[in-house]
Write a structure and sequence with these properties.
The structure is a homodimer.
Chain A (H helix, E strand, L loop, with lengths): L2 H19 L8 H11 L6 H12 L4 H22 L9 E2 L2 E2 L1 H4 L2 H20 L5 H15 L4 H11 L6 H25 L6 H28 L2 H4 L5 H4 L5 H5 L1 H19 L7 H12 L3
Antiparallel strand pairs in A: 1-2
Helix pairs in contact in A: 1-4, 2-6, 3-4, 3-9, 3-15, 4-6, 4-9, 7-9, 8-9, 9-10, 10-14, 10-15, 14-15
Chain lengths: ~290, ~290
Amino acid sequence: MDFRTWMKVTQDNCEEALSEFIPQSDIAPRRLHEAMRYAALDGGKRVRPLLVFAAGQLFNAPDELLRRAAVAVEMIHAYSLVHDDMPCMDDDALRRGKPTVHVKYDEATALLVGDALQSQAFIVLSEGNGDALTKLAMVRLLAQASGSVGMCGGQAIDLASVGLALSRDQLEQMHRLKTGALLRASVLLGAMSGKTLTATEVAALNVYSAAIGLAFQVVDDILDATADSATLGKTAGKDAADNKPTYVSLLGLTASKELATQLCNDAHQALVPFGTQAHYLHDLADLIVQRQA
Amino acid sequence: MDFRTWMKVTQDNCEEALSEFIPQSDIAPRRLHEAMRYAALDGGKRVRPLLVFAAGQLFNAPDELLRRAAVAVEMIHAYSLVHDDMPCMDDDALRRGKPTVHVKYDEATALLVGDALQSQAFIVLSEGNGDALTKLAMVRLLAQASGSVGMCGGQAIDLASVGLALSRDQLEQMHRLKTGALLRASVLLGAMSGKTLTATEVAALNVYSAAIGLAFQVVDDILDATADSATLGKTAGKDAADNKPTYVSLLGLTASKELATQLCNDAHQALVPFGTQAHYLHDLADLIVQRQA
């Protein structure tokens, strides 16, 4: 299957799985379930699910486990967006071209939607078929990537860094946690759905993940500085307006673009040991760097 | 060991385990870890951990697994208090006799503390020794009890019910989710740490859990109406001030006290099949009904 077709099929599969694994809006409490579905369904590029499925391809992982892993990681991502957008955090009104959850509903509901989506991720990952040892390792990995030394920790560093002149190392460390941890988890969850990974395999996938994770952020910063809100589906120019450190403010636009290209090459290199089975991961690195939104 | 001694030993054990399982405040991001420790340590009656250990006693469960289960469930409880106290929810300034997390730190930190404590619960439960199938089932149970058809769902119903005249059934359903689900999870997590439970054992423990869960809430309502803030360590009379439905407002004080006593008897009855091994669970039912704060 060519990359574009695979991507569409996988995104549709993920959307269907998300709809299946978030309680329907006619189940009580209805408003909460409706808001959870509003937050997670019908939007987003599904980069993390794509990484799960692409990495699953490396070792012919079973589809059911990949679906659960993809949905779980996307629920964590969706919950983090809902909480990030709240007034006490980034105070953003627009997300994926729609009003954010606290604008559409209210702040208390947004808080609960995020909380319940996090729980739901662990429900989805711990239910269903599959080897218990593998699934427990997947729960552990996702929880670590989400928590205080993962995504939440990155958010905390981000909060503390507003208005500060971060060094490039500090900026990288912040993003390694804030977005990198969950992207890495996506890749590893996909791969470990297929087999127990060797240390060498984990090391190679870590290099790939670190490169695309950083590239993702560099491109985000480039787009925030150059694209308009309509294209992004969220408020553009927000980082600069909030006086947040970005790669563009640190390195300039040209050097940021060069860095993104270099990171894409690093990601491709890390995949060489996996041969042709890694072609979707290869193409996803290109996609992350070339995306326009 | 007599009940009071056992309780003190178990509370100390739990405090020590919480301190061990929440990253130290010299680990980055320091402020987040300091705030997580502030939220979870040095306070609270530790009712849920006590239930975990008391239920573990039924089947001689190994101490390490009980410690992890107790800490995990207490982290979920602690996170829910941090988020509940936030301005967009109950807007409370006092908890366990100390300023709430958003007052002591700030709202964004409180949001992240809650989020990270939830992740940490699943880290703790999925790490360490023990049978993978059992541990995966424990993760599943805790996630279900925490999510949209558990604790978060109860919060959502609570939010939606402010100012409404709830029937007794509706009030019970709300509390069954809001506090009952996590109390039930505590009992089952403790018991399943010792052995794979039969349907009969689960059914009996469900009856016990439902009775103490409801008793817990009835007593909460009685205390909110009768005790002062200094004794409670949180703002008293808040439910009435917020126009929230309570058992006292629905049944009156005398009938509420009778209901609490009846529920305590129901809980004791449910334990009969477990014989003398259930004595800590028996005494905990008494404690829940007789507590003054």
